[in-house]
Specification:
two-stranded antiparallel sheet, eight-stranded mixed beta sheet, 18% strand, 310 residues, 10 strands
Length: 310
Amino acid sequence: MFKFRRPVGLFLCGGGALGAWQSGVLAELVRQGLHFDALAGFSIGSLNGAAYCYNKTGELGQIWRNMKPSTILELKPRFYNIPLELYQQDSGSLANKVNFFFQNRLSRLTLFSNKPVYEFLNGWLARSGPQFPRNIKFYVISHAVEMKLPYVVRFDGSTQSHNLSFVDSLMASCSIPMIFPPVPVEEHGRRYNLVDGGVIGIATINLSLFEGCRTVIMIGNSRPEDMDFPALGPFGYFERKARRMLALHTQKIYESRVFIKSEPEVYLIKPPTDLGVNLLEFDGVKCGKAYDIGEAEARIFLRNAERTNS
């Protein structure tokens, strides 16, 4: 296998159930002997990152194949009066402004409880102890609503942080507006509400966390075609908006590589085809197939890297 220049950073993008594909890529890279010195992720990417820190990537395939909607989604609507603002993608016509106004209000209504996700994380990760088996810096990224900025919690080889528990930081990173409730945090005497910033787009997440790395590997869950994804069904509107924003985020994050002074080689691995699963479609059969596609794509990536650099 081609040896990447160290230190090697890993950035894991969000994408809900599309993260099954990302899990497959990550698990196969690790199985082939690739290791990372720094890691950052948001949304489902933070959960896959936690699996890496705890040396549990080998368990990801079975987790996705056993996935059921009830494992993640428990209907419990609730409204949160927080100053959440979405990124306005449309033109400034009056009709679009009115539509955007109602979108912002609607985004403060969450449909599902976060209890099942907490139970999963506590059962899978929290009992593994505070120390990571791997010596790695792990940055969990969410979005602080009141600050309108990314909120990054660093875990340096263990689950200890100065202001937020490991499980709370993971939950905050996965708290998709309209889907899961925000996670509160106290800092410097102020209270902030943390949500998944991957579908908001107010502030751009970037690769500056990997300053000093010589190689950075990004595993996205989006394709350029997601900019105009033809989603249907009851969550079709959400699916289209979220897919578009995730695709924009992925592209902007990748473009931010030019600002890293250490000038690392940055690789972006993205799905080669439609994965056949929607963001909230936690169906074990479909997620298992997406996982398998990810494994295959990781092998292709490594072969191409070796061929290019031989």
